[in-house]
Design goal:
The structure holds two protein chains of two kinds. Chain A has helices spanning 16-36, 40-49, 55-68. By secondary structure, chain A is mainly α. The longest helix of chain A has 21 residues, at 16-36. The radius of gyration of chain A is 12 Å and the shape is elongated. Chain B is of the alpha+beta class. Chain B has 19 helices and 23 strands. In chain B, strands 2-3-4-1-7-8 form a six-stranded mixed beta sheet, with helices on both faces. Chain B has a six-stranded antiparallel β-barrel with strand order 9-10-13-12-11-14. In chain B, helix 8 packs antiparallel against helix 13 (488-498) and helix 9 (309-321) crosses helix 12. The chains are: A mainly alpha, B alpha+beta. The A-B interface holds A 17, 20-21, 24-25, 27-28, 31-32, 34-36, 47, 50, 52-57 and B 223-233, 257-259, 479-482.
Chain lengths: 69, 708
Amino acid sequence: MKCKVCEREAEGDYCELHEKAYRNIVKEYDVWKKASDVSWKQYLSEIAKNPFTGLWAKEVAESLLSQTK
Amino acid sequence: MEEFPKMEKYTLIITEKPDAAERMAKALDYKGKPEKVEEDGVPYFLAQRDQKLVLVPALGHLYTVVHERGRRNYYPVFNFKWAPRYSAERGAKETRKWIEVFSRLASNADGFIAACDYDLEGSLIGYCLLKYACGGKETVAKRMKFSTLTKEELEKAYEEPLPQLDFALIEAGRARHEVDWLYGVNLSRALTLAASRWSGKYATLSTGRVQGPTLKFLVGREKEIRSFVPTPYWSISAKVEIRGSTYEVEYETETFEKRVDADAVVEACRGKPAKIESIESRKIQQNPPIPFDLGKLQTEAYSLFGYTPRQTSNIAQRLYLEALISYPRTSSQKLPPIINYAAILRALSKEASYSKLASELLEKGQLKPVEGEKDDPAHPAIYPTGNLPERELSPPEKKIWDLVVRRFMAVFGEPAIRQSMRVCIRVDGHRFYLRGRRMLKDGWTRFYKPYIRAEEVLLPTIQEGEEVQMKRVGREDKFTKPPPRYNPSSLLQKMDEEGIGTKATRADIIETLYSRGYVAEERIMVTDLGFDIADILSKHCPRVVSVKFTRELEEKMDRIQTNSEERESVLIEAVHQLKPVLEEFREREETVGQALSKAIKKARMQERIIGDCPNCKTGKLMILYSRKTRKRFIGCTNYFKSLCTTSFPLPQKGTAKPAQRNCKGCEWPLVYVRTRGRRPWMLCFNPNCPLKEERRKRVEMQGLREGS
């Protein structure tokens, strides 16, 4: 399989590098939800435009957002 | 070979560099005026003391480890020998003349002294010359040991030399070079051959015993940064007015995980009366800093002046060669009394800017430096020799010398005493803190003043129970930040903490990572090529990027210096470890080659990217070549997706590459163009750049003026 973001070899949806970013995104959603009660989609848009978000996390967030459209 | 002119017998003194030879010759010649001779462009010095002395400089290492026999394009290779550098390295032709001069001068000498720097490299340089160029004189040679190039110390080192070379140090130096060669040559060849066999194109790839684990640290940090997801948190920002002045205050809880909680505090405190509940004050004693070892000097110079570790090391080396500071490649943080603190201070007091400070320390009577824990058997910590510059120092040299001098004086200073104050302000059950600090006794900081970064925050006279005015209470929205990137200085510290590399090689290893294109930028960013190399090494030969394994090998090599380990056993172990790694690598050569070729191709593409496309905003502008005409131009990557047709012409002569900076006039990315016979220039390819318009008008005006 190919990674949905970078087309590297992947076992699931993402390659090893983007998988790590994806897992971080899922993990940190709990913190965001508790902090300001945002929806999953709002959360993804927030982190996609946040300057502190890492490049791979941003790419995964954008890919997830495009799937939810 | 022409015969060297016969003269009376003499003692041959081998030094590490020409500057050191000249200084040593001046120090040892009884008139202080040695004769300089130049033969085939190789300088050496004739000095007269109790006997005739010939001082010959090396050019750093003149011998190196080479493959004993065989082709260049295969691995594994475990048979090596020491050979002249000119026979192994293309850029080392000059060293042939130096070796020949050494050999000729050795034939007429009846005494030999190695006077290279007293460390692994210096001992090895002297040993190789005595053994190979002087015809086996390493067993009869004596050794001068010194930490500064001052006249007094050099004379003492000459009068009381060690009876023989320090063979433990030499064995340790040999082991390091040989183990590094085994790792470097085999792994670099494995990578390069795997890539070129797969793609048919040659690209130099390298890794080494220390380079691999260092790249691994950087990749680990880069992965954390790139997959980082920030989380929100909130804090309270507030200001208080006391006697007409406004001060920032901190809320008792530093951060809030929920916005509503921060909002509740703002709501509760806004517009409410505030009263000073308590004033706490405490004195903090700040001890003087410890003397500089090389690592500490490099860290301080990076943070104060922005010099990379390698720059600092080079500057310090120059200052050492001019006898202004002691030997800089030291791990010691100790200053033994034998260096004569008072004599150094007396000498420094002749310099106007240090006169008052040095005299003040001399008046103290007993001088006792604060010292760190680290020690180095060969040299003390870095200290000024007391000599004053004989020429105008360059600004960087001046800065480093001043830093070393002031640090030396500071270690003898009294502790500094600071007062820290915390004023608690109560607002409707909530507490805010106003903090102040001031210096009560400046102690050692007086000596180190230009380099002290702590600022004073003076508070007004206030009393408990006094009412004050809250000026503003607000909520601040914040996000957690990713871990910081390493910079050359923090990476050097990390290598030191992890115990990999030596003080002499760490800075060079960092530079190699840059020159190979594995990392970029000052705040170190791993490139795609760096990622792929680290990934391939971790997958296919994890041992060579293992920090633990590298550290263990370092420790074994260190033990050779104290005669508790043998060089041969370390080499056998290195080969034993490396052999299976290389065999496995060879089995997977095709897979590895494919991955590497992709990585190189991607890196080469990256090198051609100029910046973002100003028209479609989503594509990248890059240097492309027309298939039809083979002419180069700038085009958008979205052209291949039929989304953007932006293109700009480029000059066809010379080389053109991204300049990595933007035009001052229009902010478009610039292209660096280099043509033969012309100065390199920056090209702004924006046809509507305002700077071009200005230039056009200027030329027109000039034409009009000339016409009228």
